[in-house]
Amino acid sequence: MNELFSKEKWKYAFYTVSHPMDAYYEIRHRGRGSVPVAIVLVVLFSLSFSINRISASFIVNDLNPLAVNALTELFSVLLMYLLFCVGNWSITCLMEGEGRLKDIAIAAGYALTPMIVCFNVGTLFSQYVTLDEGGFYYMIIAFGVAYSLVMALMGIMQVHNYTLGKTLVTIFLTFIAMLIIIFVVLLFVDLITQVYSFFYSIYQELIFRI
Amino acid sequence: MAKSKKIIIAAVTLILAVAVIFFARWLIRYYFYNDYREYISSYEYEEGTEFQALQDGGGEVAGMELAAENDILKLYADTETAEVAVVDKRNGQIAYSNPMDADDDAIASTTNKNYLKSQLILDYFNTSRTEGTFDSFSYCTSRGQLEAESIPDGVRFIYTLGDLESATGIVPQYISRATLDRVLAALDEDGVKFVEKKYVESTVGEDYLELLSSAMKGASQIRKLNKYFEQAGFTNEDYIAEMENSGVEGAVPISFVVPLEYRLNGDAVDVSIPMRAVQENGGGSIFRIQLLRYFGAAGTDENGYMLVPNGSGSVIRFNNGKTTSENYSEYVYGIDKLAAEYTVRENTEDVKLALYGIFREHSSIFATIEDGASFANISAGVAGKIHNYNYVYPSFVLRGNDKLSMFGTTGNEADIPIVEKEFYDANLTVKYTMLTEENVGYAGAANYYRERLVNEGVLKAREGSSDDIKFYYDVLGGVMMYKFFLGTRYQGMYAMTTFDQAADISADLAASGVSNQVMNFQGWMNRGYYHDVVDKIQIPRALGGKRDLKKLNETVAANGGTLYTDVAFQKVTEISKRYSKENETSRYYGGGYIAGFGLVDPATLRQTSGLGWAENIYFLISPKFLVRYVDRFTSKIGKYDVDGISLRDLGNVLHSDKKRTNIIDREEALDVVTASLAQIEAVGKSIMVNDGNDYAFAYADDIINAPLSDNDYYIVDETVPFYEMLIHGYIDYSGAVINLSDTFDRSDIVLGLIETGASPHFMFTHQSSSAIKDTGLNRFYSTGYDNWKDDAVGIYNAVNDALKPVSSAHIINHEILENDIRVITYDNGVKIYINKSTSDRNVDGVEVPAKSYQLGGDKNE
Q1: Contact assessment for residue B188 and residue B82, using Cβ atoms and an 8 Å cutoff
Q2: Which residues of chain B are within 8 Å of residue A204 when distances are taken between CB atoms?
Q3: Residue that wins the pLDDT comparison between B87 and B178
Q4: pLDDT digits (tens, 9 = 90+) for B798-848
Q5: B552 neighbors B488 (Cβ within 8 angstroms)
Q6: Which residues on B lie below 8 Å from A199 (Cβ)?
Q7: What is the reported pLDDT for B251?
Q8: B453 within 8 A of B445, measured Cβ to Cβ
Q9: Coil, helix or strand for B231?
């Protein structure tokens, strides 16, 4: 456990931000990454995201802060993260990707670092902007999102040893896989409900007709 | 044995043991908990004797025999038509159960003429759950299916309603081989030959035969068959038995046996239907009985009016010409929520009193529903619509019915109508009191009824002697609010007014001259206004805890008032933690849904909405478990230093539990609720009832949110404060919260209070209302004490000036004069003239300014 959270591992997360290509290669082949760190980063991202939605100045934020619940957002973010990892893993398995589930989880988790930083900076910055200066706030947020996207793209590319084109295709297929997973789960839940209500109807009809 | 195996066995045993313990606990706590049964009342069915008319003293009513007589009344009965007439010996007035000249009615259709001649109209479901109607004239008396019996002081009619004549006479359509052989054995050779040929093998059962359909159609063959069956000694009873034995649905015609009793009782006739003696045959299920629809009905040539218990009371004049409007029809004590639709189309005040009346110039009939009131619906109509009579009557709902939605495999959906198996057992009783000129009009009826309630011990003389009227105010204490911990939402209590702040409000009001004040503290325990169930009482520290509550009670008492603490028993909020909604809530009959409601959503009109806050959703507790919470509460509240208990929903909410395996009907629920009220009274604290129904009168010291007006139905002509006329001087009362009412024309409010003799009622909070704009209580949007203090004291002083001379007197008359002036007379001689119009008026030499009032009369002390 200690090893997984060691100072080295944390430092490496920041090294990934500055040297994504190299770092992701090392993560795949030399085991420099850590899944727990990635998960902590996802949780941090979720918190930053909620803090941004609750506390960003009203000039740039038209949400009712009372309607935001950090706990439910945390669960949805974790769920999406899990879905993405599983979806990507199932696609790349079939497309000669070299990455393991562990590598995908690390790649996706580490890629969130720029967003964590930029969302918090943006939240702080938004307290001091006027309406006209709102553009700077959006620039900070957009920078964070773009950086994270680029990192995620590089991460997926490196751990699977893909070309850029193939990466884009697999990411597109990943989203389709995620939809299919959601679809199957819903279908299954619906089926269970139907079976239950079928037997319950029989029971009801029996007690009220006899 | 391997170690792992041992562990598995141990684990399984443990799980089983825990499951058994939980199941046993569930059984004891919910299934076998039947303490409510000891509160359910019962009644006896009196045996009758053969009808014998009294010999001497009859003759006032042509065509009827004298059935009973006492000092005041004579009861005449017609044993053919089941009509009765009540002769009042004091003034010779006769009240008929049915209009005597119904056949001459110019506009009535045949059906309505039959109804006019009926005493009972029965609505039922047949075996396939389709509705049907039997009126007692065309399905009983005109067919000679009536029996009369004598009972002490009265007469009982036993109606057999139904079409008992079969198309085939006594010849059964289905017959068993054995019976047929018996019949054939008694016949001669020709007969055997004829009868045998008419029957063929049937599929309804083994060894069963069925009548040829060709034989059923031929009238001469049926006649001949009947002759042979008669020869063989076959009777109508044999026919019915044979048809019943065949087990074929619909083979026995639907019929009902219903007894209807009339008993003279002083100046009243008690009319009752002991449901215990009602029989249903042929698979029919009674779901409603309309009782004596035209008792005392007034023709087009008569003057007078009818009183209906619409809100505070309403008057419908005879022949008011409103023939295109809907008839008046309302459920007594409001409709049972479990029988109501989810959609609420109109916002109405419930019926609070189980009574109505028909008032003529010289005599009146004043009816009170003595038993079965919670099943009753009171309806009234005027002449010119379906016939030429003005009438008001009760009908009793005796069975619930529901639609059960069934979902098939793939979207096939069907609504199956379902009907409760048993009808409700109660001795439905309506007391028709004959009033003379001594008690004329609704005011006379109010005086009469008040006296009766005093004699029965329902209304008790009040303690305390302050001349000032009371000033009622609710104080909102704890409010549930969303709070955040690290951005995570949770519900916590916010102190809108602490006990100390409430004490300040009380002291401030006293300093402003309000010396007779009543504080109703809402949200004082168990997490605030929407509190947890009351098997435990916890005073929140945020409000000041138990010690501050005691101090508040002392302060209010020192300021000449009473502190009431508000408790909800029957509506349990969704956020209650110790309440098991699946086990303890009333259930619907079909589908097993639990009774959950909320506020009315203004967009969908469904009354199930929390409008964004879960605490606004509530569940109606089953009467079965109400007992337990009242028990626990009464054993604990004694330890708290408060002078009064305010009942938010015990005096005005009455609902059944239609759980299929254990139906508790509304009348039983009423028994449980009144027993609970008695139990709370026994604690020895004062009791305040919110919007109380008449069964709460016996326990209430104060009533808040009493109906001061009626619902503006089109058929209604005048609003009368009948409710207030009954209780003024015995129970103090107030109307709805003034600072939350949607109009604020001060003179209208003041005059309304003065007319009804009511005290003003406000709601105060220490914090500004904006503090709770993001909570479920944001409907209390204007309660800040600082803003309202001056208006509240002003209104109080204005009303107090008028009502001070009469604060403990009784209203003996309320008149609506032609120029829209209302005159209220109190029994101490004081008269109050009220002018709601915009011009000055002069009445009996008294000048009454516009939008104002004038005191008159002499105070005789």
Answers
A1: no
A2: 404, 406, 590-591
A3: B87
A4: 999 999 999 889 999 999 987 778 999 999 889 999 998 888 888 888 888
A5: no
A6: none
A7: 66
A8: no
A9: helix
According to DSSP, residue A43 is labeled H
Task: Give yes or no for A54 touching B (CB within 8 A).
Answer: yes
| Closest-CA residue of chain B to A67 | B489
Flag whether pLDDT at B860 surpasses 70.
Answer: no
Contact (CB<8Å) A70/B660: no
Name the helix (H) or strand (E) containing B564: strand B562-567
Q: Residues near B854 by Cβ (< 8 Å), separated by ≥ 6? A: B832, B833, B835, B846, B847, B848
pLDDT computed for residue B464 by the predictor: 63
Q: Which amino acid is at B151?
A: I
pLDDT, tens digit, for every residue of B333-374? 999 999 888 999 888 889 999 999 999 988 899 999 999 999
Residues 393-432 (B) with a CB less than 8 A from some CB of A: 404, 406-409, 416, 418
Prediction ipTM score: 0.76
Across the interface, whether the CB atoms of B418 and A208 are under 8 A apart is answered yes
Q: Which of B489, B490, B773 to mutate to test the interface with A (most CBs of A within 10 A)?
A: B489
Place of tokens 């004239």: B137
Residue B763 has pLDDT above 90, yes or no: yes
Residue B148, C-beta contacts closer than 8 angstroms, at least 6 positions apart: B51, B77, B79, B82, B155, B156, B157, B158
Are the Cβ atoms of A47 and B487 closer than 8 angstroms?
yes
Number of Cβ within 10 Å of residue B226's Cβ equals 15
CB atoms A204 and B407 under 8 Å: no
3-state secondary structure A19-41: CHHHHHHHHHHHCCCCHHHHHHH
Q: Do A70 and B487 touch (CB under 8 A)?
A: yes
Query: Per-residue b/e over B149-187, b at no fewer than 16 CB within 10 Å?
Result: bbbebbbbbbbbbbebebebbbbbbbbbeebbeebbeeb
B130 CA to chain A: closest CA distance, Å?
A: 15
Q: Residue B454: which pLDDT band, with cuts at 50, 70 and 90?
A: very high
The tens digit of pLDDT for each residue in A130-186 reads: 989 889 999 999 999 999 999 999 999 999 999 999 999 999 999 999 999 999 999
DSSP bridge pairs for B390:
B298
Q: In terms of CA atoms, which chain B residue is nearest residue A73?
A: B488
- Within 13 Å of residue B777, how many CA atoms lie on the same side as its CB? 27
Q: Is A70 in CB contact (< 8 Å) with chain B?
A: yes
* Residues of chain A found within 8 Å of residue B406, distances taken between Cβ atoms: 201, 204-205
**Yes or no, beta carbons of B487 and A51 under 8 Å apart:** yes
Whether residues B406 and A194 touch (CB distance < 8 A) is answered with no
Question: DSSP characters for B10-76?
Answer: HHHHHHHHHHHHHHHHHIIIIIS--GGGGG-----PPP-EE-----TT--SSTT-EEEEE-SSEEEE
This prediction has a pTM of 0.87
CA-based nearest residue in chain A for residue B486:
A70
Mean pLDDT of B421-446: 92
Whether residue B406 and residue A201 make contact (CB cut-off 8 A), yes or no, is: yes
State the DSSP code for B765. Answer: B
Across the interface, which of B408, B416, B488 has its CB nearest the CB of A69?
B488
Long-range pairs of B40-47 with CB within 8 A, sequence gap ≥ 24:
B40/B668, B40/B671, B40/B672, B41/B671, B43/B274, B43/B276, B43/B371, B43/B426, B43/B427, B45/B274, B45/B276, B45/B277, B46/B151, B46/B152, B46/B261
